[in-house]
Design brief:
With about 500 residues, the chain is mainly α. It contains 15 helices and 2 strands. It is globular.
């Protein structure tokens, strides 16, 4: 079942059964703490005594979950992108992508406050373009979430190969990763999953720091000559091909493409009013971490930086780093498979008492949705066993539209009905009282983001596909491959 949206989309249902139809801006947020007030949630309905509490996540844990939906596989590819683009353009483009996605993340949070019934991006699509918009975004979102999870399963197989020195077929390790993810992704609420985010965040931070310290202490990068002199050949302003440059930008988008997950995470906050605060904390940390790690690893390893970056240090450090990173890689797959399954679950049971009651239908539907998500992610990871290419392809083809071309169309100053930003504001250019400098700047910004998003989607997808084809040709790779994927640069 899917929600029926109307003007009442902005109404909160209070304890007295009456609706509050006030439209809230970023200044006038009045969504109360659902857990404390006992209100009927606009998405999950009334909480049942024996049912799951879907509104149990505080803003700090929300910031960690948001950051964990970003920090994962993306950070492992950034140093290699600096080697492709050059350090200067690499940092500038990374900061540009971070600024655009931060704005999109903020807008989507305000959109949730103004439309409490919205649970996911497809719900936004229904408000904007009716059933067709909902279904198009539903399919795209589900594929995106599972592609990210698939990338993480591939990352887990890389870690297991590195730790075990390729003890068995890579296809087996991908299957093992999928099996490990199933029980954790089956935890029913983000309140139960939030500890996975905390553990995963610490895990990846520590593993990357270990690599930086090891190389900085005099260790040679694993791909570099292990005897005699070696030259980092640092590039401060690169001259990449169009395909390579767009592939690198696509992986930047992937590293910051958690935007579609922010809505369902916000829906499980105790107090959604704190969402903007969580976004700012998340994006500030993520951006600073990406720039610091990318710069440090590239400056220390130069042309010998590996992708994923944990393979840059010597063999023993690589094995330890991948061991430390395993919880972080698993947590990415868990969060994205959970959100993918949760979308199907809410879509199927929304408006039914089975959503909040631990009935047989509730449990069968929930487990089936999670299993479907993990299975699809497993197929993606096995069919495209090229880490760098898969990350770039997912970022460009799916992450870019969600973070730019789609999200930028929803502005926080919505009228009674939520419509495309340009449709909602197009007529204002003829109104002298509203056609202010601020309006013109925002209009120009939206046009830039929208056009840039389309360009990156097309160009980045092309670059990623070229990279995948080239890697397949060089390594003889194939779907469900047994080849070791832990030592490629």
């Amino acid at each position: 079942m899917s929600p029926t949206h109307s003007h009442d989309d902005k109404m909160l249902i209070g304890k007295d059964g009456h609706a509050d139809a006030t439209v809230y801006t970023d200044v006038e947020r009045s969504t109360p703490d659902a857990s404390a007030s006992g209100e009927v949630d606009a998405v999950f309905g009334a909480r049942q005594e024996k049912g799951p509490n879907y509104r149990a996540v505080g803003w700090i844990s929300t910031a960690i979950l948001l950051a964990k939906s970003q920090i994962g596989l993306g950070v492992l590819n950034i140093p290699a992108n600096f080697a492709t683009l050059g350090l200067g353009p690499g940092i500038i483009l990374l900061l540009t992508v971070a600024a655009i996605t931060t704005w999109s993340d903020y807008v989507i949070g305000i959109f949730k406050l103004n439309h409490p019934t919205v649970y996911s991006v497809p719900d936004c699509g229904e408000l904007i373009a009716g059933p067709i918009g909902r279904e198009v975004l539903a399919v795209t979102l589900w594929i995106f979430l599972n592609c990210v999870a698939g990338s993480s399963l591939l990352g887990i197989s890389t870690a297991l190969n590195a730790i075990s020195l390729h003890a068995t077929c890579t296809a087996v390790f991908v299957a093992v990763a999928a099996i490990v993810v199933i029980p954790l992704a089956s935890l029913r609420t983000m309140g139960h999953v939030q500890w996975v985010g905390w553990v995963g965040m610490v895990s990846l931070v520590v593993s990357v720091l270990l690599v930086v310290i090891a190389i900085g202490a005099g260790g040679r990068p694993s791909p570099a000559p292990q005897e005699g002199p070696w030259d980092k050949d640092l590039v401060y302003w690169g001259n990449p091909t169009f395909g390579d440059a767009m592939s690198a930008i696509g992986s930047y988008i992937f590293a910051l493409a958690g935007t579609p997950t922010f809505l369902p995470i916000a829906s499980e906050m105790r107090n959604p009013n704190d969402f903007p605060k969580a976004v700012i904390a998340c994006q500030s940390f993520v951006t600073a971490w990406y720039v610091a790690v990318g710069t440090a690893v590239y400056m220390l390893a130069g042309q010998y930086v590996a992708s994923p970056a944990l393979g840059t240090a010597g063999v023993q450090i690589k094995r330890i780093a991948y061991g430390l990173s395993l919880p972080g890689l698993v947590s990415v797959a868990v969060i994205y498979c959970h959100l993918s399954g949760k979308y199907l679950f809410v879509r199927l049971l929304r408006g039914s008492h089975h959503l909040n009651h631990p009935t047989a239908t509730h449990w069968i539907t929930w487990i089936a949705c999670v299993l479907a998500s993990v299975l699809f992610s497993y197929i993606i990871a096995s069919a495209i066993p090229v880490f760098n290419g898969l990350v770039s392809l997912v970022g460009a083809m799916f992450g870019t539209p969600f973070c730019t071309s789609i999200i930028c169309l929803a502005d926080r100053h919505n009228s009674a009905q939520s419509v495309l930003w340009f449709f909602d504001h197009w007529s204002l250019r003829h109104n002298p009282a509203r056609n202010t400098l601020s309006y013109k700047i925002r209009f120009a910004l939206q046009v830039f983001i929208f056009v840039a998003g389309i360009f990156i989607t097309i160009g980045g997808s092309y670059g990623a596909i070229v990279d995948i084809i080239r890697t397949y040709g060089n390594s003889g790779g194939r779907a469900w491959s047994c080849a070791d994927n832990s030592g490629s640069v």
